[in-house]
Design brief:
This protein has 370 residues and is of the alpha/beta class. It is built from 13 helices and seven strands. The protein has three domains: 4-112, Ribonuclease H-like superfamily/Ribonuclease H (Nucleotidyltransferase, domain 5, 2-Layer Sandwich); 123-214, no CATH class; 220-369, no CATH class. The strands form two sheets. It has a five-stranded mixed sheet. Strands 6-7 form a two-stranded antiparallel ribbon. Helix 4 runs antiparallel to helix 6 (183-213) and helix 7 crosses helix 8.
C-alpha cells in the first residue's frame, strides 16, 4: 500500500497556501509555499505532488471560492474533501493566525481525522441552489425597496389607511394618486415606485424559473413530496431541498435537526446542566422555511383542497407521513400552548419535529428514485 500525503489548502481569491503532512503521528509537516488560485497553477501543483508516487489526500475550507478546486482535484484522480470551517478546533491560547499556519494546521488535522467534511453538490444541484439563492436575494430587494418608499412617504406625511393591508391593488391605486409639488420630490417618488415594481418583477420571474426547472432537477421527487406537508409550497420546498441536499446522508433524524440548528444548546459541567436556545447552526433559510411552516399547525388537522390535489399524485407512504405529521404536530401545538409556552418557542419546537418528518420522507423517496 502506498504511503499517504495529506495536503492542506488555505484558499483565497487570488492565491492558495499549501501545507503538507507526512503519514504518521510524527510525520514531517512543512509549507510548500503559495500558488495562484487558477486551474493552471493547481494543475501544476497536482503534477508536482504526483511525482512522489504517494496517495494524496487534499482538503480545504468551504468558502466563497466554491467547489471548482474540489472538482478539479477529483477529476485528476486524487482524494479531496471540503471542510466545514465552523467545525475546525481552535486552541484557546492561539493568538497567531497566518496563511502558512492555517495550511499546515489543515494538513495535520486532516491526517488526524479531526475535520468535518461538508456535502458537495453536483453541478445541476449547485445551479438550482444558485437560482433559489437569487430568488431569496430578490425577496430581500423587494423588502428594501418597499421600506425605502414607505420611509419617503412618511417623511412627507403620506400615510396609508392604518386598518388596510399595504401592497395590494388598492394600495397601488393609492400610490398612483400621490403627487408632489416639487419636481425633485416627484422624481424621487417615481424612482422609488419603479424600484418596487422592478424588484417584484424580478422576484416573480425567479419563482417562475424555479417552477420551470424543478422537473429536471435530481431532487424533484423529494421537492414534490415535501409539498404534501402543511405550510410548504413549491418554492419553500425547493428552498429546503436545495439547502439540505441529499437527506439520506443523515443516518438519523436527530442529525438533520442538529444540522439545521434546531436542537437546544447545552453547557453542562459536573452536576450543572444548562440548556439554552437553539444552536442556529447550518443553513438559515432552510431553518426559516420550517419555522414558517410550523405556524400553520396551530389550526386543527385537515386536508385543504389544494393539498388534496398534491397528495393524490404522491405514493401512499408519503401521504401517510403527511397526515401523521398533521395529527401529531397539531396536537403537539395545542399541548404546548396549554402549558403556557410562548408561541415563538412552540413554533421552533414544531419545526424541529417537522424536520424529523422531512428526514423520513427523504428516506422514503430514496427507493422510489433508485
Amino acid at each position: 500500500m502506498r504511503e499517504k500525503l495529506f495536503v492542506g489548502l488555505d484558499v483565497h481569491k487570488r492565491n492558495i497556501s499549501v501545507g503538507v503532512a507526512e503519514e504518521g503521528r510524527t510525520g514531517e509537516v512543512r509549507f510548500l509555499g503559495d500558488i495562484e488560485n487558477s486551474p493552471i497553477a493547481i494543475n501544476g501543483l497536482l503534477k508536482k505532488l504526483a511525482k512522489q508516487d504517494r496517495q494524496i489526500e487534499f482538503c480545504y475550507e468551504a468558502g466563497p471560492c466554491g467547489y471548482g478546486i474540489y472538482r478539479q482535484i477529483i477529476a485528476a484522480g486524487h482524494d479531496c474533501c471540503v471542510i466545514a470551517p465552523t467545525k475546525i478546533a481552535i486552541a484557546p491560547g492561539e493568538r497567531v493566525k497566518t496563511d502558512r499556519r492555517d495550511a499546515q494546521r489543515l494538513a495535520v488535522l486532516h491526517r488526524a481525522g479531526e475535520l468535518t467534511p461538508v456535502w458537495v453538490p453536483d453541478l445541476k444541484h449547485e445551479a438550482m441552489r444558485d437560482l433559489i439563492r437569487a430568488r431569496m436575494d430578490a425577496v430581500r430587494q423587494v423588502t428594501t425597496a418597499r421600506h425605502q418608499l414607505s420611509a419617503f412617504l412618511l417623511r412627507h406625511g403620506r400615510v396609508y389607511a392604518p386598518n388596510r393591508k399595504p401592497w395590494t391593488k388598492i394600495h397601488s391605486r393609492w400610490l398612483g394618486s400621490q403627487n408632489f409639488d416639487e419636481p425633485a420630490q416627484q422624481i424621487v417618488f417615481q424612482d422609488y415606485v419603479q424600484a418596487v415594481w422592478n424588484a417584484v418583477e424580478r422576484r416573480d420571474n425567479m419563482v417562475r424559473r424555479i417552477e420551470e426547472l424543478t422537473p429536471d432537477w435530481s431532487l424533484r421527487d423529494f421537492v414534490y413530496a415535501l409539498r404534501c406537508f402543511r405550510g410548504l409550497d413549491l418554492v419553500s420546498a425547493a428552498t429546503l431541498a436545495a439547502s439540505v441536499g441529499d437527506v439520506t446522508r443523515f443516518d438519523t433524524s436527530r442529525q438533520l435537526m442538529g444540522y439545521l440548528g434546531l436542537t437546544p444548546s447545552e453547557y453542562s459541567s459536573g452536576g450543572s446542566v444548562r440548556r439554552g436556545g437553539i444552536t442556529k447552526t447550518g443553513n438559515r433559510e432552510a431553518r426559516r422555511m420550517l419555522v414558517e411552516a410550523a405556524w400553520s399547525y396551530r389550526f386543527p388537522a385537515k386536508v385543504a383542497q389544494h393539498k388534496a390535489r398534491i397528495l393524490e399524485a404522491q405514493p401512499k407512504p408519503v401521504r401517510d407521513l403527511a397526515w401523521k405529521a398533521q395529527e401529531r404536530l397539531c396536537k403537539r401545538y395545542r399541548t404546548l400552548e396549554a402549558r403556557g409556552k410562548k408561541s415563538t418557542i412552540i413554533a421552533v419546537a414544531i419545526a424541529r419535529e417537522l424536520a424529523g418528518f422531512v428526514w423520513a420522507v427523504g428516506h422514503e423517496m430514496r427507493p422510489l428514485s433508485e
